[in-house]
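Notes from the 1:1 (GR / supervisor)

We went over the backlog. Supervisor wanted to see one worked example end to end before approving the batch request, so GR pasted a single chain during the call. The sequence is below; no edits were made to it. Supervisor asked that the structure be written out right there so they could see what the output format looks like.
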Amino acid sequence: MILAHLGFDNNGNVLEQTLESHLIATGNMAGNIGQNVGMEAFMKLAGYLHDLGKADRLFQDYIRNKAKQQVNHSSAGGRILDDLICADQELTNLKHSKAKFAYFQELLTYILLAHHGLYDLIPYGNTEYKTYQRLRYDEDGDYHYAEDVIPFFQKMNQELIGLENKSFISLIKEAYQEFETIYLKLKSLSGKNSEKEQRKQEKEYYIACLTRLCLSILKEADIYDSANAFHNPKQHLWSNDEVMNVWSDALERVEQMYQKFENGSSISELNKTRNDLARLAKEAAIQNENGIYKLELPTGAGKTKTSLRYGLTNAKHFKRKRLFYITAYLSVLEQNAEDIRDMLKMDDTILEHHSNVVDDANNDFEGNDDYEDYENQTYLKESWESPIVLTTMVQFCNTMFKERASNLRRFCKLINSVIIIDEVQSLPLKVLSNFNLMMNFMKEIMHCNIVHCTATQPVLDSMVMPHPVHYGNEVDVNDTIVNSGIAAMKCFDRVDFYNLAGKNAEKVLSTEELASYILEELDVFDSCLIVLNTKSAVLKLYDYLEVAASYVENIYLTTNLCAAHRLDIISELKGKLTQNRDKNTHYKIICISTQLIEAGVDVDFDIVFRSLAGIDSLVQCAGRCNREGKLQIDGRKIHGKLYIMRFIEENLSNLPDIKSAVEASEYAIRTVCKEEIGDNNRIIVQNLQHPYFEKYYVSNRGKLNYSDFKRSSNMVEELGRNGPGRSLYNPGDHAEIKPLMYQAFRTAAENFQLIDQGTTGVIVPYHNQELLEELELAMNQKDYSGVKKLLQKLQRYTINVYLSPKLEPYIYQNKDYGVYFLIEEYYNGRKGIITEELADWIL
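Structure output shown during the call:
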């Protein structure tokens, strides 16, 4: 008996899964998933071939006798594929005459060889084509391809003829027809770019996207069958009927909620408009099938509820598999996830997935077959099997671009989904081209309905973008979910913007001048928020106001405070602001913060001062001012005020992205404010958005493709034509073979980081003495499970720092666990970490 997997039950009895049953089960599941994108035969073929190398006696010895040596079992499937093509005249002719067929064979071979780990087709610094090298895996005589693999395959071919009345040759021809259809779609998609060189690059990039999709489907089917080889019942997969029931039940709850809103006895103009916007979104959801759409709504318009109504309506109408809600900020996700759970009351259908580094690291099976110890919740979390998934932009981008097995597997779960991306304008410049290209691929090939939500829609479809998004439906029309005129109704106009930076955006305020403006406003108003770009600037202003305005409550907010500390401060702050608004308590409050307060923090100030930043940041900041339009003076409702200014204490030299955004905003202000104006004249911030984004992207065009400085390349190039790798290729003794695919799949995936890391968490002392004592005890007792649980609880008391020798006097490390702690005397109850040398190195 030739085995694929071997295990033991609870009584120690041996459990065996035959290779034949594993290949057939994997092929069938992969084919079922592939059917959703028109690649049923292609993916079934991949599943049937992927583990053929396990028929080799070397692998059988490895699995039966627990031999230590790893065995290459993925290359044999690629060899069998090539042998079959060469044995059939029709396929041989296609191989030598059609570029489409060459792509077909190269892509299919790659996913067979890479299903336990991505590799570069031309490894950095090499000249040999890696796939050809991998296909010659048995040339040293150690393996038994002819003696073991071919006889097993011949038997399986006969089984296939008996099962499906078709041979592997017939299946290859069927798979190629499917691939040809997809290939022509990709060629047409790349043809939308107006620049010839970019069209070439995009075609190869979309081939890379297709490779990732096919590999994802294969890995999902392979890991699912392997993990469930000895499970009865198997881990739950949601059927189409079950998912449709979820959409019906969830949508019914949302509709009941809106009915209550609309039938309320006293409905304000603001709430009436929110209901109208949600109704328009619902109507659009029935019209919009696959595509990429804009939902641009002002702050306070009910974006989360509106997008959820759109998503559920679309999911039910078009029989979607999943609904994803994605946001850039963990604080927003946690807040909105709670709201969504409360609205739907369907916890068993909702997966909330964000910071699970430990889980991913412990359950990433790249390069081996140890799938047996694999629990149901791990499967759900790793594979995004739930109908409704709430996650962060980091996890979403990792799923699209990173190399981990868990990231790759999740990618196919995006097929036929509604994907709501909140705060899309927050994406870093460096990822925009890759993000745009992947959006286009998911729209055209994966049949997704993608919603870009924001109060300040970035122009990702601008002609200045080297690789723009193709908004709209499948023919690129009807790109907007809600008419912008309705979204800009007067009831959302609650804040007026004023310019203190002058018509050229060059006027800079000293600490004394800024403080004077703030205190002058506090003669009339009760609360003031000041948002600055750097922590050192926040500290300078805070220290000054503590003396100059000691009669006012001054609040300091930066990442020098741990999350638990910040949440406590914000909770107390919100309570006082609410009392000011609802009970006229007239607390005098000044809050000085970095941009951490701009998103996901529902505070309501009378006045805001915002240091010049990107226009999107200014609009976000305005959402913290007069949120519900309740601000009054002498019983009369008035608008809040946001002052745009420049502060002398800011140094942006180490913050290139913010500096670039500031420069684009300067350009927008100069463009809009051409005529002579007073220093504090009101400006219409909406008029700044288009020139801002155009300038921002033009000035940073060279940064949009995710640079790889080590290789003088970029990620779009590495997943596209890969000129540097292509130029190194030397066919050697195989001059007659010229590949078409050259992608550096592994390099691109390993280099990708949505947010640059390089930081280490340091646990700080803040109302957590009991937890710290429990952790110390667990560490001393080598209670690894207890340590893991306690570290998770202590995440809220952690600050991320860049490790440096300068920090050694202020922190200490438990070397057994690699955990860092801050010495107690260096944490302050108002300002968090107070040691200047340490604060300089905080993220």
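Supervisor's comment: The chain has 32 helices and 25 strands.
Batch request approved.
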